[in-house]
Amino acid sequence: MTLEPNSVYEKIITELPDGEKLKSCLQCGNCTGSCPSATDMDYAPRGLFALIAAGQDEKVLRANTFWYCVSCYQCTVRCPQEIPITDIMYHLKHQAIEKGLYTTDAKDFSGTFIGMVEHFGRSFELGLAAGFHLLHHPLESVKMAPMALGMMSRGRLKLLPKRIKNMGQLRAILDKAKEIGA
Length: 182
Ligand code: SF4
Ligand code: SF4
Description:
- Helix 7 packs antiparallel against helix 8 (125-136) and helix 8 (125-136) packs antiparallel against helix 9.
- It is built from 10 helices and no strands.
- By secondary structure, the chain is mainly alpha-helical.
């Protein structure tokens, strides 16, 4: 396959460590099947990679997919081709920012997630979903309440966030990462 210079595909392959592994994608769908955010994404990971290979760059960079990625690494662990999927999601965020192609809704979701990690050292699913939906789709949050209550009663969802033990260490790492990225 010939890579278009400066295309989304070419940038992943040349700029990201192990990015060239994306060429070996089998379209097996293990990534999509493992992704907790797949149902909210415009294109789940497998579909997004098909668009990237087809050179549909604008569709790719306007998608909410990588903004809804919560960096759980489940896709990366389960990919039979060891494609660094989570890292690709980060790379796509950078590409979308560089080209000014992103929606405010999607960026807000990502911002809420980052805020939680900075505050508690981990994601807090109930706060993440509630914060985002209350801001953008208040009616949706009411519809989601019965499901959330059911999950809470089965211990699958926590009512309050719990801060990790070594928050100071994590803050130092995050500060360093911001300093390097600035
Ligand atoms: S799990 Fe890996 S090989 Fe399978 S579709 Fe996803 S990226 Fe491609
Ligand atoms: S790392 Fe992102 S894309 Fe991969 S399974 Fe988790 S949320 Fe989905």
